[in-house]
């Protein structure tokens, strides 16, 4: 087991790397998508049912595909972007594609929790759409969005473990190569414990941050 410590250390940081990259892309892509899904809905200040429907359908299509299938289906795109289909950087492509619509729906749900009266008041005083988004929607939804970000991060940890099936690296890859193929239960249980501790740490940190920013 001691001989595997370097591999465990490497696998752990590969997992952190994959989650960090895909989470960053999920925020960059998912936050605007979630805002579009909300503000273009019926009765909102940028109502556009056609745009809302198209974006919603695209988001739902990606979300309906099980991650392991999405991972395999995106191998050509992964090869095009990264030049390879194995390793943590390659796995980050499919992780990002899976995370963007997931986080977008969480953002949309968080925005729907905001009192419509607050939005109507902002519209009544002549606030521009950008001002409403920046000064009303995002501050009001911040605690819920952070909780959603925590959920997204935990989901990405699980997805990254699945990426190990196709040589994506990380803790999942280590569990498959040593724990499954070599029937080493010690490695398997160790990787499980590492994942449990990591998820608990993420959940604890996310809850603390959400409570800290909640000024309501």
Question: What does this protein look like?
Answer:
With about 220 residues, the chain is mainly alpha-helical. The protein has one domain (about 1-215): MetI-like fold (Orthogonal Bundle). It is built from 9 helices and no strands. This is ABC transporter integral membrane protein. One of its GO terms (biological process) is D-methionine transmembrane transport. Its main location: membrane.
Secondary structure layout plus pairing:
Layout: H1 5-39, H2 49-64, H3 67-73, H4 75-82, H5 88-112, H6 116-124, H7 129-162, H8 170-180, H9 185-213
Helix pairs in contact: 1-2, 1-5, 1-7, 1-8, 2-5, 4-5, 5-7, 6-7, 7-9, 8-9
Family: Belongs to the binding-protein-dependent transport system permease family. CysTW subfamily.
Transmembrane segments: 12-39, 51-74, 80-104, 145-166, 187-206
Domain ABC transmembrane type-1: 12-204
Q: What name goes with the CATH superfamily?
A: MetI-like
Mean pLDDT: 89
Per CATH, what is the topology? MetI-like fold
Distance between the termini: 50 Å
Query: From N to C, what is the helix and strand string?
Result: HHHHHHHHH
Task: Report the principal-axis shape.
Answer: elongated
What share of the residues lie within helices? Answer: over 70%
Into which percentage range does the β-strand content fall? under 5%
Count the E strands.
0
The total count of helices amounts to 9
By CATH reckoning, the class would read Mainly Alpha
